[in-house]
Write a structure and sequence with these properties.
Length: 194
């Protein structure tokens, strides 16, 4: 069993950049700063590069996150000369919930099956469910829907358990920080809605 200090020492510069960009991106998204999106793209791009050809499912997941982040950046950006304000924080419309539920159920089954066939996940359906919650969370973040933070909490808590079981201590630390930030985002955005 390697220790946290040994694992931190073995962490590459690119992994540190990805982690720092991810943490700073979440912090800036809580503050509703458009600069969060290029940081997310940097974070996901680093992970895509690191895992392409090795953990293809993880690399593919980061590719999807890059696409959603490009969409979020466009949506959050203020166009010079535009008369509209930045998009406000809102709640997810009730009509969207059945669609969200169906996407999570169907895609969890599909991605879980693919992961079980590839052997890239120890618990493929749980991993797939956490991934789908993260996709939904990123999509909701791009639309500034407060429920983004609930889906991030669900996803991050599942991943925290999974990486804890693997004794991947730097990633345990990272997901602990993400859980705190998701809780903070939920609290801060809720104050603006009330």
């Amino acid at each position: 069993m390697s220790t946290l200090l040994e694992q931190l020492g073995a962490t590459t510069a690119l992994q540190w950049i990805a982690m720092a960009a991810g943490i700073l991106g979440v912090w800036l998204s809580i503050k509703e700063k458009v600069a969060a999106w290029p940081l997310f793209i940097l974070c996901y791009g680093c992970y895509l590069y690191l895992y392409f050809g090795n953990l293809n499912a993880f690399a593919g997941m980061n590719g999807v996150f890059i696409l959603i982040s490009i969409y979020g950046w466009i949506r959050w950006a203020k166009v010079p000369g535009a008369t509209t304000q930045a998009i406000p924080i809102t709640r997810t419309p009730r009509a969207h919930w059945p669609i969200i539920g169906a996407v999570i159920v169907v895609a969890t089954g599909g991605i879980g099956w693919l992961l079980s066939q590839s052997g890239e996940a120890n618990v493929p359906y749980i991993d797939a469910f956490a991934t789908l919650c993260a996709f939904v969370a990123q999509w909701m973040l791009s639309r500034k829907q407060i429920e983004t933070w609930i889906f991030w909490l669900i996803s991050d808590m599942i991943y925290l358990v999974l990486v804890f079981q693997q004794q991947d201590w730097p990633t345990v630390l990272l997901f602990t920080i993400f859980i705190y930030l998701a809780w903070k985002g939920l609290r801060d955005w809720a104050r603006q809605l009330d």
